[in-house]
Design a protein that fits this description.
Length: 160
């Protein structure tokens, strides 16, 4: 995203909207995913999530993709599988806005708790989740691929 696009994005955030993700959105989401994460989801991961009927959302401002999220709903629980915000707009409150959208959707489906895993090394994300009411309830050893083998995931939970 160039400077003019960021400026246009800043002025269009009032028009922010949430749109259900569909298969035609995967290339744009994948491109963003690859900019955000060292070990990104694949096209197949996103396609499988849509095929499985997971709750998958885009956050847009006009024509600009601000972020996306994928959440699995099962009975009275939700599992946040993936969330990302365009790097130029991270730490501007958009992640919290997207989380609140997901929480509202989950509540409407009768969900009582939301779970997620986060890389142990991702101090920024851990702080983000703690600020949004999550608490750490466990860990999974060797969960994520890492530069030198595998890395633990910390398991978080939030009551709705």
């Amino acid at each position: 995203m160039n400077g003019a696009q960021v400026d246009a994005l800043d002025s269009s955030e009032a028009a922010r909207e949430f749109v259900a993700m569909n298969s035609s959105d995967i290339p744009a989401v994948l491109a963003l995913e690859q900019r955000i994460y060292a070990f990104p989801w694949t096209f197949g991961n996103f396609a499988d999530a849509l095929t499985a009927g997971y709750s998958a959302w885009l956050m847009r401002a006009g024509e600009y993709l601000l972020g996306y999220a994928v959440m699995m709903l099962v009975l009275d629980e939700a599992h946040l599988l993936n969330i990302g915000i365009v790097p130029e707009r991270q730490r501007a409150g958009l992640g919290g806005v997207l989380l609140e959208h997901l929480f509202a959707l989950a509540r409407n489906q009768g969900v009582a708790r939301v779970y997620l895993e986060v890389r142990q090394s991702n101090v920024s994300a851990r702080g983000f989740y703690l600020r949004h009411g999550f608490v750490q309830i466990g860990a999974r050893t060797d969960y994520y691929p890492a530069q030198n083998g595998r890395e633990a995931a910390l398991v978080f939970e939030r009551s709705l």
